[in-house]
Amino acid sequence: MILEKVINKIEIQSEYKEFVDKYIDHILTEFQDKIHSIYMCGSIPKGTATPFKSDADFTIICANPKDIDYGRLSAIKDKLLAEYAFVTKIDTIICSMDEVLSKPNEWGFWVKIICVCVYGDDIGEKIPPIIISPDFIVDLNRETKEEIERIVQRILSNADDRNLTTRYIKGYSKRLLRALYSLVLEDTGVWEDEILKMKNALLNYCEIDSGLVEYLYACYLDSDVPVEEFLGIADEVYCYFENAIYRMAASRTSFE
């Protein structure tokens, strides 16, 4: 079964179009010929963004990520957030062309399936069709452990800052739900980027305790929960996920 693109048509709402155009203009002016292409994912390119609730998610593809100075990039973000207060946050991922092409089930998946090109030549078109299979699911989650460890460290390091803690708990909840959802891709046949649809699919297809799924979803909606309680339950969920991935990888190896 071939995995289809999440966003087939860019439908940016009028109130966000100027913001997106300015972001692209600022990036191109600042970094000039170092940029190969720029992508978006989430509610803004889908045309479902809500002012003062939705954030902006960009991905920049370039030959060498070291060419992109994060300080200058941060200054662009700050300027745009001050000008367009209805955008809650701007996240920017920077990735090399080589990473996209050499890791089709990881970065290739991100660009080809999750994102949509808003500037430049779409490098996702160079990625072969992605077949939903245990091989793909294992590859997709190669960096999940490291990502989880980084999030946990941020939560522990900022335990006294409630605003940061709730933000990281929300992100951790979303990351775990996405990881769990990858386990049921062979059942659903599609990648969902809406958390509610992910949750419902997990309740239908995933063997994990449904109460854990509901807890993560509740924390995604309202992250003001005790840190120790959340980390304990999150660890239980991650252990389930990790064991499932190990079994999948072992099954794959046994057939080689």
Explain what you see.
The structure is a single chain. The chain has 256 residues and is α+β, with helices and mostly antiparallel strands. It is 58% helix and 10% strand. The chain has 12 helices and 4 strands; from the N terminus they run αβαβαβααβααααααα. Strands 3-2-1-4 form a 4-stranded mixed sheet, with helices on both faces. Helix 3 (70-83) links the parallel strand 2 (56-62) and strand 3. Helix 1 packs antiparallel against helix 3 (70-83) and helix 8 runs parallel beside helix 12. The chain is globular, with a radius of gyration of 19 Å.
Please outline the helices and strands.
Blueprint: H1 14-31, E1 35-41, H2 43-46, E2 56-62, H3 70-83, E3 90-96, H4 97-102, H5 107-114, E4 116-120, H6 134-140, H7 144-157, H8 162-183, H9 185-188, H10 195-205, H11 210-221, H12 227-254
Parallel strand pairs: 2-3
Antiparallel strand pairs: 1-2, 1-4
Helix pairs in contact: 1-3, 6-12, 7-8, 8-10, 8-11, 8-12, 10-11, 11-12
Strand order of the largest sheet: 3-2-1-4
The radius of gyration is: 19 Å
- Compressed to H and E, one letter per element, the order equals HEHEHEHHEHHHHHHH
Q: Could you list the spans in which at least 5 consecutive residues all have pLDDT below 50? A: none
Q: Could you say which structural class the secondary elements and strand pairing correspond to?
A: alpha+beta
Name the average pLDDT.
Answer: 95
